[in-house]
Design a protein that fits this description.
Chain lengths: ~675, ~260
Amino acid sequence: MNRFFYGRLAFSNLKKNGSLYLPYVLAVIGTSAMYYILMAISRDEGIKEMPGSGDLAAILGLGCGVIGIFAVIFLFYTNSFLMKRRKKEFGLFNILGMEKRHIAKMMFWEIVMVAFVSILLGITAGVLLNKLVTMVLLHLVSFEVPFGFHISIEAIVSTVILFLCIFGVTLIYNLFQVQKAKPIELLQSASHGEKEPKTRWLLAVVGILALGGGYAIALFVENPVDVLILFFVAVILVILGTYCLFTAGSIAVLKLMRKNKNYYYKTRHFTSVSGMIYRMKQNAVGLSNICILSTMVLVMVSGTISLYMGVDSSVNNRYPKEINVTGYGLTENGRERIKGAVAQAAADMEIGIENISSYTNLSFTVSKDGENLNMPNGIKVPEGEMSIVEWVTLEDYQRMGGKKVELREDEVLVYTKIGDKEDQAYHFLDKTFQIKEHLTQLYLTDMQTDVMYDVYFVVVKDEKVLQEIYELEKSVYKERASQIVYVTALDVKGEEEQEIAFGKHVSELLAAGTAEGEIDVRVETRAEYRDSFMMFCGGFLFLGIFLGFVFLMATTLIIYYKQVSEGYEDKARFEIMQKVGMSKKEVRSSIRSQILKVFFLPLVMACIHLLAAFPMINRLIFLFGMADMPLFAICTVGTVGVFALIYAVVYGITARSYYKIVG
Amino acid sequence: MAILEVNNVKKVYTTRFGGNQVQALSDVTFSVEKGEYVAIMGESGSGKTTLLNILAALDKATAGQVLLNGKNLSAIRERELSAFRRQNLGFVFQDFNLLDTFSLQDNIFLPLVLAGKGYNEMRTRLMPIAGKLGINEILGKYPYEVSGGQKQRAAVARALITNPQIILADEPTGALDSKAAESLLSMFQGINQEGQTILMVTHSIKAASCAKRVLFIKDGQVFHQIYKGSSSDEEMYQKISDTLTVITTGGGKHE
């Protein structure tokens, strides 16, 4: 026998099954290209030299891992579709006299061909697109560096290894499938009589509970630290709930529909309900996959887009002024030096400064239980709500325009935006402060940034009291205690470069040692912060869109394979119904309504997930400093709209190939 | 009075490429009276299935006409065709054509549901038929859970439930074992005795010998016919067998 026989046979098999294999090959090309690109960028020397690229590299590294894991699951899953359709063919070969080892040889050659072509094309596409994607990334993080065109050997090797492993495992799985099946089973497996799925109430209940738990976490957990921890719990609960509900809940609901005789025995519902019951078992997992992937795309893209769109508002929220000089535990001398350094920098650089303001402040976290301000110490967290207390002096308050009042040492004024406004006094360790008045305005605008916690601004008599409070704090928090800070904030009249240069100059002036020794001081500029934050958000957005794209591709492919395999099943059913007296139009409309229901169910479910997750994601991106809820809402709605549009187009295209098969 | 009239029906298939013409039916003329039980016999390729497809309005004749209750099938508009077939014709197929997404009961209900009937009416109609066919016990089962004979009985129930003018059966015993085939045939005779018109296409002599009249088709036309009259099934079997021998040994001269 010609030694190329199996190769040629494999090749003609692939050609014959082109409509099945083309999307699979495209998927491998797509995922391997994406994997290569992310790998290459995260290893790129040019990017490593960018300031603040540490975050970016970490984010991209995370993305590589996600795509790698995803590729394994996804390609394995699509392969099972292929195998299901091709078993009959293998059975025929078997019956016509090919032994299983011959079939194995043939399958080996098929996979070798598919792997060779798709990995080669994938890496080629990756290399070609790498430059483009890098440019998009750099644009997103607002960074301009001309990069040369270069190929990352390291990324190629790692891509080839990963995908060869995937194909290897796939081959072993397929061989095992064929090996254990009898030829007659291979022949019949495509038209295997399916049992009607049983209603699994337990599973349905578990699904509802899991989903409810996930939603409850998303809706009711308000503490940002808890949100961060519980977010993944909620994600896992929702995924679990989705799988359970799709497998059990849908069947339970459909069976209830069937029990309702008046509803069930209508032309419109009759075929679609029974068809859905029949199909639900084989499709539940596929639909859950589509639903979860869609939710992931929506959450990721809408979250990262709004983070990115909100960079300016986050930055302005965090730094109301351009230059911020913070001194820690300063004496009067230190404060004078800061004032002097700012003035001198302005003079040296001949730059105008404005909106200068200074204040002294002590800030730490307490756990507020009624009027008691408890200090969480070690692992034991006392009762109460995590809150931030900002202690300021009466002097600063009045200097910024606060009203004239006299305070005794144990008297305070309190301002809070969203916290309790009814308290009479605060008990802090062994001290008690009587609240003289709840203020309606604070005037210290630089301090009033939006954060997730309740914030209490407590105005005390003078710095002596402030110092006492600091000593108390130190007695509990020890070396973790926050210090009294002296903050000077101002704007410079000039461009970003001048802003950054000014900050540097102030920093140099303060760093120079003097007779009194060094002072502990930090100079931050809004521009620098903005750049590094942009790098962070841009990196996230890039990854969000990138992964969104990968998941979208996966969703598309799953839909396609579902349509095709359902098309082959429906073909026979379609013919029978026509023979029994259903018109072509009725059959088409009934099948269309059925598929429409089945296919838009995951999308609707994904939107419900997104809606439930909205408050939680809002709080999460709040942690990154993005406090613009309406903007987030707009971004989310926009993302859903675009996604639904793409989904509909994909549906339309695949539905056409479906109708082609059916009839 | 004739319930079905087939006048000079001709069917020519044109292959898609090259325009080769294949004549499936050259000139078929016969009629079926109300309450008759007619079997059509012929070898593979004689045009039986083509004829049945034309009678079922699944296919259109190239020339000639088919009248059901005096109504010309080819004159019915495409839109009304499905409803017409549903109301007037009942079908029994060789491979049952039951939908595996439905229980047997729902399979039987299918044409009624399409016609927009209510559940109670469907149930009232089903009960006597199911009793007669002996499928009461298995109505809730699915096609893949029952035997071939039971499937075919469910298919017969589906054909009967619309009270059709005529039942068209295409090789109804073709996929059944001899015992199931025999019981199906006696069921057909029973139904026929109650007045149901049946037209059956078959090449099983056994099946045809149950009919009151047998038409033989050869080379696209009705070649011969025999009436059962008062002869028994066994005598009829012999007659058909003889006729087939004559046909296959090529005796146009015996006509």
